[in-house]
Amino acid sequence: MKTKSRTGLAGRRRSRDPHAKREATRYERPIASREYLMQLLEEQGMPLGMETIADLLGYSEEAELEALRRRLNAMERDGQLIRNRRQGYGLVDKLDLVRGRVVGHPDGFGFLVPEEGGDDLYLPPRQMRALFHDDRVVARVTGIDRRGRREGAVVEVLERNTQRVVGRFYLESGVSFVVPDNKRITQDIAIPPDLRGGARHGQIVTATIVEQPGKRSRPIGQVAEVLGDHMDPGMEIDIAIRSHELPLAWPAAVEHEVGRYGQDVPKAAKQGRTDLRDTPLVTIDGEDARDFDDAVYCERTPKGWRLLVAIADVSHYVQPGSALDEEAASRGTSVYFPERVIPMLPEVLSNGLCSINPEVDRLCMVCEIYISQEGKITRSRFMEGLMRSHARLTYDEVASILVDRDSKLRKRHTGLVSHLEELYRLYKVLQKLRKRRGAIDFDTTETRIVFGSERKIERIVPVERNDAHRIIEECMIAANVCAARFLTRHRMPTLYRVHEGPKADKVADLREFLGELGLSLQGGEKPAARHYAAVLDQIHERPDAHLIQTVLLRSLQQAQYSPENKGHFGLAHEQYLHFTSPIRRYPDLLVHRAIRHVLKGGKAGDFSYDRGYMHESGEHCSMTERRADEATRDAVDWLKCEYMLDRVGEMYNGIITSVTSFGIFVELQDIYVEGLVHVTALKNDYYHYDHAGHRLCGERTRTIYRLADKVRVKVMRVDLDERKIDFELIEQKSVLRRKKRKGQKKSVSRKKRR
C-alpha cells in the first residue's frame, strides 16, 4: 500500500514538470528537468540528498539514478546547486550564496562580480590565494569590511578559466618560477626542474598550468613556449596576444575553407545583383589601411542628395555554421596593434576578396539614402550590388582636394571632383543637423607611434582629424541609422549598438563639479545628449575646457552590443547599429545576414538567429571589443615605457590627465606619455582626494591639484615589467588655493560621511 502511494505521488510529480515534453524530445529516457529539480528543492525548503530526491521522483532503476546523478552534478558544476558536507543538494540563492566571476587586483585582493547583478563582493588576499583572475566561484557573505563593502569567502570553485599564462621566467638559487605579465594574477607560477622547457633566466615564456592554486599551495606550471628575450623587438605584442588569449593561428578547417577562394569574384556570384561598376564609388581611408570596408558616392537631386554607401559583402563568403564563421564569431573583432593586425578574417578575405580594392570587381551590400536639403533622411533602401572602386583615396588627399583646393590633385582626379564636392556639401548639412539634434562631439586627441630602426619608437605624433575624416564618419552614421530602422521595421532579431545615458550617481557628481565652476547641466534626473552638448558649447573659450570635457566624457557609460534597442545617447539617435565594417566586426556581419534575409523575402520567425542567440553574441562581442582595447593598450604602454627608459632624470612640461586617491597622472607635453606622481611624492602637506571635484586638496597649505592643471615633472623611474612610469613634481604652473572658511574642518568631515 505504501509502495503504491509513493508511486502515485511520483507519477503526479513527474506530470508537474513544466518541461517534461522538452526533456522527452532530447532524451530516450528523460528525467526531471533542471527547472523542476530546483522547484522541488524550493518546495521542500531544505537541502536534500540524492537518494531523497530520487525517492520523491519515484526513481528506482539504475539508469534513472545514474541520469539523475549526472544532472545533479552538472547543476552543481554550473552553480545552480551546491552540495553541503552532509552531501545534500541545496539552492545557491536559498543558502545566501553568491555566484559570479572573480576579478583580481594587482594588490592581491579581488572582487566577485555576481552573475545575478548587484554589488560586488570583496575577496581579501587570503581568499585570492586559491584563485586566479576570471575564475567562476560560489561564495558566501561573511560580513562587512571596514570600508563598508560586503566581504566574502569562497565556498566552491565552479570553473577554472586560467589554463595558460605568459610572463617572465626566473631561476634563482635553483628554484624556477614564472611571474605572470597579467598583474591581476598575483601568484608566481612554480616551475619544477623537469618542466622548464629549456627556458633561461629572464626570458618571456608561456606556461601551462599543471596544478591550480590552493589555500596552502602555489600554482604549478610547465613552460610550453619560449617567446624570446625581454627586450626583443615585437615582444610587447606577443605578450599582449598571449596575456589576453587572442586567437592567433587559423584552425586547419578554416585554412581548408579559404583555400578554395581565388583573387577574383566568381562569375556566378555576380548574377542577380545591381550593377554599380560604372558608378564612381571611391574608398577614403588612412594611408596605412590595408582592408577597405566601405566606398561612397554622392550626387545632387532636385530635393537634396542621393548618397550611396557600399559595404563589402562579407556575408556572401562567410556562411553561417562554417568553420570560418565559428572562428570569426570567436574572435569577434580585428585587433589593431602598432604596425600589426590580428584580423577577424583570414587575409585572403580581409585584404583580398572582400576588401574594396581599386579597379577590381567586388560584391557589396549597398545602402541607398535620399537626404533632404535640411539633412533629413527621407527614404532609403538596401540592395545586393556589384561594384568597382574608381579610386583608393586617403583622408589627406580628399582634404587637399576639397579644403586646400590642390590643383594637381584636382586635375589627377578630374572625374571624381564633382561628386566629392557634393559629399562635402552634404557633410556640412549633416553637421548642422547633428548639432541641432544635440549629438555630443568630444574633441579628443589620438596618437600614432612612429618606429625607427629595430622597431624602436622614434616619436609619438598626434593624429590630426580633418574634414575628410568627418565626411566618412557622417556617411557611415547615416548608413548605420538606416540599417537600424530597416531591421526594426521588419522586427528582425539583431544587435544594436547601445549607448545608454549616464547613471544617476555620475550625473550627481558631474553637477557638483560643474556647479563649482559656475556651470550647470540641464535635463533633470535624466539629461539628454543635447544638454551635454550645451555645456560643451559654453566652454570653447575657457582655459579649463579640456578639464570639463574630460569630466563630461568620464560620466558616460561605455557603449555595447545588445538585442534590445535602447538608443545611442552620444549620437542622439533612437535607433543605431553597426553595419559598415563586416570585415573587422562580427556584429556587422550579423546585421548583413539579417538584411539579406529580409531582401530574400524572409521573416523574423524563419531567421537563423533568435533573440537568445543575439543576447549571447552581444555579450561576447562586447567582451572581445574590450579585450582588444585592453590588449592594444598593454602593448602601447610597454612601448611607451621602453621609449622612456633612456629619459630617466629628464624634466618635461605636462598636464594632469587623471586624479586618484593615490596620486595624479600627468601626460608629457608633445610626447603623449603618461606617468604617475604618487601622493606620497607631493611634499610639505597631507593631501585628501575630492572625488566629485576630481582633485587632491592639501590639508595645511590648501594647495589643489586637479584635472588639466599644467605642471613640470621629472622622470624618476621606469618599470617595463609593471608598465609604470613615476614622475616627481617640480613645479605647478598655476597653483590654486582654497579660501579658508570658518568651520572648514566640519564641512570636510560632513563630505566624508556622504
Give the gist of this structure.
With 754 residues, this protein is α+β, with helices and mostly antiparallel strands.
Protein described:
A five-stranded antiparallel beta sheet has the order 5-4-3-6-7. Strands 10-9-8-11-12 form a five-stranded antiparallel beta sheet, with helices on one face. It has five domains: 89 residues; 64 residues, OB fold (Dihydrolipoamide Acetyltransferase, E2P) (Beta Barrel); 67 residues, OB fold (Dihydrolipoamide Acetyltransferase, E2P); 297 residues, no CATH class; 106 residues, OB fold (Dihydrolipoamide Acetyltransferase, E2P), CATH 2.40.50. Helix 14 packs across helix 15. The protein has 754 residues and is an alpha+beta fold. The termini are far apart. The protein is globular, with a radius of gyration of 30 Å. The N terminus and C terminus are likely disordered. Helix content is 33%, strand content 27%.
Largest β sheet strand count, sense and barrel closure: 5 strands, antiparallel
Taking the alpha carbons of the first and last residues, their distance comes to 68 Å
Give the integer mean of the pLDDT values: 88
Q: What is the C-alpha radius of gyration, as a whole number of Å? A: 30 Å
Structural class label: alpha+beta
Q: What is the topology, as strand order, of the major beta sheet?
A: 5-4-3-6-7
Tally the structural domains: 5
Name the helicity range: 25-40%
Name the shape in a single word. globular
Query: Roughly what fraction of the amino acids lie in strands?
Result: 25-35%
